[in-house]
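Bug report (template v2)

What were you trying to do?
Predict the complex of my protein with flavin-adenine dinucleotide.

What happened?
Run completed; filing so the output is reviewed.

Input:
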Amino acid sequence: MFKIVIVGGGAGGLELATRLGNKLGGTKRAHLGNGRKAEITLVDRNRTHLWKPLLHEVAAGSLDDGIDALSYRAHSTNHGFNFRLGELAGIDRDNKQIHLAKLLDNDGSQILPETSLDYDILVMALGSVSNDFNTKGVADNCIFLDSPQQAKRFHNCMLNKYLQLGVQETKQVKIAIVGAGATGVELSAELYNSLEQVSSYGFHEIKSTDLKVSLVEAGEKILPALPEKISSAVKRELVKLGVDVRTETMVTEATKEGLLTKDGELIEADLMVWAAGIKAPNFLKDIAGLETNRGNQLVVKDTLQTTRDDSIYALGDCASCALPGGGFVPPRAQSAHQMATMVGNNILATIANKPLSPYKYTDYGSLVSLSNYSTVGNLMGNLSKGSMKIEGRVARVVYMSLYRMHQVALHGYVRTSLLAFVQRVNKVLRPRLKLH
Ligand SMILES: Cc1cc2nc3c(=O)[nH]c(=O)nc-3n(C[C@H](O)[C@H](O)[C@H](O)COP(=O)(O)OP(=O)(O)OC[C@H]3O[C@@H](n4cnc5c(N)ncnc54)[C@H](O)[C@@H]3O)c2cc1C
């Protein structure tokens, strides 16, 4: 049986596993082998999937991952692929095997020993991690928003700080966010929304001035990847909310007290988030002799096969794919979605002995959600003849449609509509903020 192994069940990898499972994995219960044309295995180190662009909402408490996360095991059973819980430890290209590390329990005891999986085609879809550029003290004192676990850790720390307000001489909760890309900007706004909700759930003394968010950016403007008029519109909104936006401010160290800048200033903070850049995980560097770039990304050809091994594909944030006009495909959910579609097409073409197609990145624009306050961004395409600024309700609908597209790829239209309905009902039935 032809074996396809996908490592990483994120924005791209889970869509790919679902599509290939639906097409090749047989009807239901893939492990029973009924009608199976290929054996598809998805490996992830987590038991559940949460779409990464929602992590800032988990951090602020506006989203409860206990409700919104999707069980890999249940999903795989319904979509004709196998799920293996585990962490990639290495690739043996000669024997076409991947090695998974020992699976350990929280107390360090072994659940499963090291194991290997055979593949005919391997797809690397491991995403990215925050890059602290070896800045002193960041690893010890800042929280990264790379995983639901880290987002939940931030959420707990934030609630604890609110509990301390007014006692133990805590007069204000100070949160500093380094990096004013989409993650930093969206988190800043979401924190003010969660403050409003916190005060309506029994923390009566809390006022808007009890929260101070500093958004620190080394570059000249926030949202450097977006046009100037969008970045200044967003900055105005953030300042209105109370965010202290500091551009051209280089952080040189993170300490227990806060962030030290190049000019010797201390930006005091109780909680610090580092969102100032990403890289592929360090262990990918030169893995199994594959070509990687300075950010540890696997270099791929236009077919999305790695340059030194046609049986290994890479997609999403961990792939470095050159654009024909210069530059590289940006690390975004829309890129991971498009690449997953193309890798799927090419794997199906391989099985059918047909030629592979090149991947062409299409930029549909970028949108930034400022929580319930506003959504701003630009749309690209024929309709807008280049880039068109949008905001308000229309922007909100387009912003949400990116997540809905991901859900449609996983569940189809009917289930996605039902999920959207349940989400609306939950808004009425459940607290608007996760308080535990
Ligand atoms: C807070 C935040 C907001 C964002 N907002 C936007 C946005 O608005 N629009 C946008 O386009 N993009 C946004 N992004 C970026 C977007 O989330 C990523 O570009 C996208 O998720 C990349 O998809 P991926 O499939 O490459 O990786 P991911 O979605 O990160 O998935 C990687 C998967 O690999 C698994 N994994 C990692 N290492 C291992 C290992 N060793 N073994 C096994 N499994 C492993 C992880 O558990 C994860 O499930 C945002 C990111 C963040 C953090």
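What did the reviewer find?
The longest helix spans residues 392-429. The two ends are 47 Å apart (CA to CA).
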